[in-house]
Amino acid sequence: MLKALTDTLTNMNVVSAVTSTIFIILLGFFLRRKGIFSDSLGKTLSKVVLTVALPALAFNSFMQPIDPVTLRQGINVLIWGIIIYILLIFITPFMYFKSDKDKKTVLSVLTTFGSTTFFGIPIVGAVWGAKGVMYSSIFNIGYRIFLYSYAYIKLSGLKLEKKNIKTMLLNPIVIATFLGLFLWLFQDAAPHVTVPAADATGKMVSVAFYRIDQTAIWLFKPLSYLAALASPLAWLAIGVTLGSVSFSEAATDKTSWYYSWNKVVIVPLINLVLLFILTATHILPVDNIALSTIIVMMATPTAAVAAAYSIGFDHGALMTSNASFISTVCAVVAIPLWIVVLSVIKAAGMFG
Q1: Under DSSP, is residue 204 helix (H, G, I), strand (E, B) or coil?
Q2: Residue 108: which pLDDT band, with cuts at 50, 70 and 90?
Q3: What is the DSSP letter of 99?
Q4: Could you tell me if 300 and 119 are in contact, meaning their C-beta atoms sit under 8 angstroms apart?
Q5: How many whole angstroms separate alpha carbon 111 and alpha carbon 256?
Q6: How far, in Å, CA of 313 to CA of 98, rounded?
Q7: Phi/psi of residue 189, nearest 5 degrees
Q8: How much is the CA Rg of the chain, to the nearest whole Å?
Q9: Which residue among 135, 149, 151, 352 sits deepest, i.e. has the most Cβ atoms within 10 Å of its Cβ?
Q10: pLDDT of residue 145
């Protein structure tokens, strides 16, 4: 185990991914504090990430060959992505059993749903590449189902509305995910063309005609440039957001610290333990990349949509704002530590 830890801490891919995340977030924080970046810039960057960069990143991640192992992992990630949210819906209220009913409801929803899309996917992509992004996009299918149904109903007190379903289905990231997933799954059945491989070998390969990573580099490359914007822009936006809020005010809220501990430590730990058991018993085995993707996604801070529900329907608006800020600060510290832990787990050979 000591050797595994040493190998991890000297692995430049891991170290550079962690430092890149921290340094760029700190850059955004510094530039906001200095007044070089305005408060509105964070929101603008977020919109660019969510409407352009992340859809391109999600779609491009499916432009790869399909094989039985990856397909099986993708199915297991999808299944777990639905099961874990059902489990968390029942588990998280017990974390706040001393709180009153309304506070318990808000905190349990905020603990269940993290910022997997905006905060999680850019980090996953930076560390585990296209396969990690693909798994995270598949994992997010269950997340979106419950975020736009259960979370909305729970915090609004209303029935699920058509406009909410429309918002979910017409989200650019959802469209890109389902389109990419469909193309990835059915590429063997699609008409094939033989083209020179896009890699340095240049040997001839037979691929589905829509595998633009091989058949239309002129289209795949611009999407790749847009996808590459996801991580740095998201991290800058996070830094700007942190730089726009008074830490001293939020830091006095003990509930926010307790919530943040549950969100970025306990929830991913629950996932880690359960997935270890499921993998060891071969009930729902996942490999190291799938495991790492899931753990990082679950260690993310408050989901913006869940926070918007809470604030919009006047359920502990101040508490939600503080919780969102503190959990973001905690996630900036915790996720790099989780990456190190996951790298040690990989080096120790605990997951395939």
Answers
A1: strand
A2: very high
A3: S
A4: yes
A5: 11
A6: 23
A7: -85, -15
A8: 20
A9: 135
A10: 87
Tens-digit pLDDT profile for residues 48-71: 888 899 899 999 999 998 889 999
- Domains defined for the chain, CATH in brackets: 2-347 (1.20.1530)
d(CA 241, CA 212): 36
How far CA 111 is from CA of 81, 135, 254, in Å, comes to 15, 22, 15
CB contact at 8 A, 342 and 292: yes
Q: What is the mean pLDDT of residues 272-299?
A: 95
d(CA 92, CA 69): 33
Q: Which residue has the tokens 């408060």?
A: 39
Q: DSSP 3-state assignment of 218? A: helix
> What global pTM score does this model have?
0.86
DSSP summary character for residue 245: S
Highest-scoring range by mean pLDDT, 30-44, 124-138, 263-277: 263-277
Distance between CA atoms of residues 310 and 56, nearest Å: 30
Q: At 112, list the tokens.
A: 């269940």
